[in-house]
Every structure is written in C-alpha cells, then in structure tokens.
Amino acid sequence: VYGMIHRGVRAMVIDQLGEEAWQATERKLGIGPTELISGMTYEDSLTIEIIAEAAARLNLDVEDCLLDFGRYWIKFADRGSFASVMDFTGQDLPTFIANLDRMHLAIATAMPMAQVPSFTLLSSSPGRLVVEYRSVRTGLEKFVIGLFQGLMDRFDVSGSVSMLDQQENFTSFEILYAEKD
Amino acid sequence: VTVSIKKELLDNLFPANFFLDKELKITSCGPSFVRHFGEIAPGTALFDRFEMTGGNDRSFFDLPITQSRAIYLTDIERAERLAGTVVPIDSGYFMAVRLVPTEAAFRDHKYQISEFPPGDSTVQGLMLINLQRAMIEESQDTALELAFERQRGMELLDRVNRIAGYMAHDFNNFLSIIKLNCDRLSREYGSDERLERLVSIIRETAARGSSITGSLMKLSHQRTDTQMPIAVDQLIEENAAFLRTVVGANVALSTRLEACDARAIISHVRLMNCLTNLLINARDAMPEGGEIVISTRIEMLAIEPGKAVPTVPKREFITIEVADNGRGMTEAVLSRAFEPLFSTKTHGNGFGLASALEYAREMGGDARLESAPGKGSKVFLYLPTITATQVERQNETDNGAPTASSKGRILLVEDEPYALEALVEMLEAEDYHVTACETGDEALRANEHETFDVLLTDIIMPGRRGTELARLACEHNPALKIILMSGYVPDPSDISPGWMFVRKPMDSAQLLSMIEAAIAQGS
C-alpha cells in the first residue's frame, strides 16, 4: 500500500492516544519516517503489522480497529491534502459512492502501484443504497464498512451499514441513511 | 418508461444538458445544469441567460434536422462556461453540453465527477492535477519530518558524544590518580620486588583503561593530543618515513633541517596533520612528479598575524618551509589560497592551507605562501620557539625567590585531593617548591602573595576553570609558565600560545620534563 495509509494510521493513533503512543509504536515495530512516505509503496504485511499494533494500543481487536480506521480515513483524507479530490468525487452520499470508481481510476493513473478496489452502486433510492465492493485484497470488509460510516459522517447523515451478501469475488453492502435531525 | 430511460441516459451522458423550444426558450434541464445554474424557469429565453461565443445569432440554429453544430456558451450571471452540441429535434433543440471547468470554480468545490460525461478527459486531468498537488504537499510534509528526524538524531548523537566526553574526563581523572599513586608507591617501595610487580600490574591496567577513555574521547570528537615543548627537527626526522609515503613514489622528498634542538610548544598530532596537508597540496601540484623539500631554520622575525607592518619586536621562530617545484599559482589563486573552502583541485576541500594558517596562529605564529606560475610554491610556517615566549620576568620579591634548595616554584591546582597529594609528593621529591590549592580562587590568592615559575593546573574544576585561572594569573605575573592538565582536551582557542597541555592520565616522566622545560624557559 502507499505510505499515506500509514500516515492515516499514525494520525488516528496520535488523535486518540497522543504522540507518545505513536512513538512507542514506531519503537516497537522499528519503523520511522521512512515508512511514512506518502508516495512510496510498502508491503501489505507491514501495513497489517502497523494496524495490529495500533489495535493493541487502542485496546481493540484488529477487525474493530479496521472499522475505526475506515471511518477515520475519510476524516483524514478530507482534512488533508486530498480534500479537493474528495470534494470532486461527490458532494452527497449517493453521488460520492457512484463516483468512487472514477476517482479510483484517476488515482490508479497517478499512482500506478495502487491496487484500487471497485465500488458499483447497484441500487439507489432515497435513504437506501446497495453497493457492490470488489478488491484483490481480502479481509477488509470491516474497513469498507468504516469507510461508508465515515462518508455518512462527512455528508452529515446518520444510518447503518450492513453486509447483504459475501461471495468469493465481491461483497455487497446495504446503506440505510437519513438526514440528521 | 421509455421517456424516463431516455432521460436517465441523457442525464448520464450529458449531465449539463437542456432543451430549447423553436423560439430558443429553455423548456427543461439536466441535473448538473440545475446544480450549477439553479432552477431556470421554463420559458426563459436562452440569450437572456447565456451569451454565445461569436455573438448571439438566432440564424446559428437554422439547421436541418439531421445536422448538429458545436456551440460555446457563457452564463451571464456566474461566468461559467459550457461547450457542446446543438441537436435539432422535432420540438426544438437538444443542447448536449458539458461544463468547461475554471480553476476558481474547482477551488470552490463547484464540480463533481458525475457532472462530466464518462470518458471526459477533464475528469482525468483535474484529478491528476489535484492528486499531484496533494502528493507534493504530502512530500513536503514528509521531507520536513525526515529533516526533523535527522536533526533529532544528530542532537541525540551530540548528547551521546557529550556524555562520552564527560565519562572520559571523569574516568581519566581517576586513572590519573591511580597512575600518580603507582608512581608514588614505586618511588617509596620500588626496592620491594613483589610490591613493584603489583604496582606494574595496576599501572598496566590503568594504561588499558586509558586506551578505553581515548576511544570515548574519539567518539565524542575530542582531540586527544598534548601540547608540549617539541623539537621540530626531531619530530620531522622521526616521521620522515611516513611523510615520504604521503608524497608517493613520483615525488622526491628531502629535508634540510637546521633548527637543531629548538623547541616550540605545539601539539605533535596537529603539526603532523598540518605537514601532511601541506605535502598533499605540494604533491597534487606536481601530477607528473617533482621534488619537495622540507627545511627548517631559526629566524628572528617580527610577526603579528594579519598585519603587513608588525608593531611587535623581533622574536625567535622556527621556520618550517615546504617547497615544491610544481606548477605554482597565479596571483589570483595566491591571494585566495588561505581562504577556507577555496580550492583549485577537483576534489579539494580547501581546508589544507587554511588549517595550516589557523594552526600556526593558534600556536602564536603565522603562515605565509610564495608562489609564481611555473616556479613552484613555498609555504612557510612560523612557530615561536620556547625562548621566544619568554617574557621579562618581574622583579622577584623576597618571598617569591626560589629557595636555595628548590629547582623552581610551582603553583599546583587540582580539585581531586588524592591526585593533589600524589602530585605534591612527586614534585617535592624532585626538589620543587610546591604550593598546593584545591580551587582556582585559592590559587589566585596565593599568586598574589608569591611569585611562581609554573602554574600547573587542572582545567575542569568547580568554580573557576583552569584556563580562566591561567589567564588571570598571567595578568598578575606575565612570566608565569602555564601547564594545563585535564582528562578533557580543551578547544585550541582556550589555550594561549606558549601554554602547555598534558592529557590525563599523565605520565610522571612526561610531566616532569614539561615542568623542567617551562622552568628553563623562564630562567
């Protein structure tokens, strides 16, 4: 994965536990700024190691940490250098999700090592979306649920995300949402 | 159903579409059109809201039903631009347009991907530009983090170095006490073979410890040399083989040493570094080979660094001349040759001559260069001899006169009581009159009441440092000779020309010979 993911994990740990906790994570894993270069690609195993260590420090199991991180990632991307890309992708929940593949296509062109997932909006009706998710990576469903929750936060709607179906090649999610009172 | 599918398709393909009737009035709009231009009341005339590039010309729309035409529009209210095609239909015209993004509109987050038709290169272009900007910002952040990390690493290293330096200093002090007391034992009970053997074991172990402190000092980037009277000719002779290896096989190195036994108070290591640098410069000036001559002599010179016309009287100097018969220097190069970082060599760092000049001046002397194109170069190093540093001794008062039986008066300052005790005993055993003090202030008071030949002082002490004490003591008694001792090697700028320095743990014989030289200098 690209180093920006590692930067996201670092930001989450620092936000929630403080700078010291991240420094301890770096010491334990033997990593430093050279593992946090946005435009560099790193082995997935290193990313998993970082997330697992973050989970331990946050007192979460890895799955829950992935969910939290997915949610946090949207906030992280939105407040950083990628905010304009996020805005361009969509300014409401259905549009954003419908445009995810086009955003990822552009990212994959700019960052050729990126293995981007695919999101297809199967159905869109007021308050309900059905999205199909495909990726060469496995085991990231919780992260995806976190991403959708993060998007709901971004567009100021409340609701729930659930897995409708999980096959070998894809997973479909149902997003139920409503404007916040 | 058919109409809705068609509309959905049209909205997907041309999100900014709209319809006109035959009177060029807007009848309905696509989703992106509404988002950007707001709900436009049906019946609004096209030219009331938009301007056509090239002029609002109704005849532009006189098209056969099978033809289409490119059109460019600008929104009068918001200055947004549209580009697209006019397609005549039965009821009027279908305007398949697309947004022409502006930087300002993008910055204001007005657009989203789905407002552009699939395959529209605008999306790719905008995304790439924004991703690139984002990546540059991220790279800057990362570069700052790496720079900060590097700085933090250097600070940490610096801290480790300083700790290593402190440890070396303290450890050297203890080793010094051990060595001095070994010498005491030898003096007292040297005839007892068994005891002498034990003493030699302790002394040898202390020497091993000393090599460890030497490593610690190197780790903390401290110099480990001693500053003492050195016979320059002897030093050059002893190191002639090494100096020959510096110049290589292509260059002949010869010496003409005429300074005889004249000694200067200098650092052995630094003089060797200086000579090595000068020889490397000379060798590099003769890539085809040549000859270098190192010569020494005694000269009476008036030297005042930085002044063309010195105002000081002539003194005795050892002149070391390094002459080559290489290509020489132009006047322009010669005028800058002593500048730090100035070099005419491809891989030169410009420190050789600059450091030679710095060294000579720190030792109370100077350096000079003579050169001309095709006539080789000569570097002159001037180092004051021991007698040159002699200052007119003040009239000795009765209480300052050496006693008939003593070889000289020594003001000894050492804050370590065991070291002080051992030094006093050693010096008194050598017939010196010793006044021992544990602090600088105590020593200054003693210096006011008595005239001493030599101030032998530790450097790092609580309160006044040895270097400060030496300066103040010399102000009161300019003839006073200074020997500094420490487990920590001071910065050269802390040592005035003519002062000696001995690193702890000290060798008793070496210290005694330095004291002897200092007393001889003043007599």
Describe the SSE topology:
The complex is a heterodimer of chains A (181) and B (523).
Chain A: H1 3-17, H2 19-29, H3 44-57, H4 62-79, H5 83-89, H6 93-110, E1 118-125, E2 128-134, H7 141-154, E3 157-166, E4 171-179
Antiparallel strand pairs in A: 1-2, 2-4, 3-4
Helix pairs in contact in A: 1-2, 1-3, 1-4, 2-3, 3-4, 4-7
Chain B: H1 2-13, E1 18-21, E2 26-29, H2 31-37, H3 46-49, E3 50-52, E4 69-75, E5 81-89, E6 92-100, H4 103-107, H5 121-189, H6 193-219, E7 227-231, H7 232-238, H8 240-247, E8 251-257, E9 263-267, H9 268-284, E10 290-301, E11 315-324, H10 331-336, H11 352-362, E12 366-371, E13 377-384, E14 409-413, H12 417-429, E15 433-437, H13 440-449, E16 454-458, H14 466-476, E17 481-486, E18 500-503, H15 508-522
Parallel strand pairs in B: 8-10, 14-15, 14-16, 16-17, 17-18
Antiparallel strand pairs in B: 1-2, 1-6, 3-4, 4-5, 5-6, 7-9, 10-11, 11-13, 12-13
Helix pairs in contact in B: 5-6, 5-12, 9-11, 13-14
Q: Helix/strand/pairing class of chain A, anyone? A: alpha+beta
Shape of chain B: elongated
Count of helical regions of chain B = 15
By oligomeric state, this entry counts as heterodimer
Largest β-sheet summary of chain A: 4 strands, antiparallel
Spatial order of strands in the largest sheet of chain A: 1-2-4-3
Q: How large is the count of helical segments of chain A?
A: 7
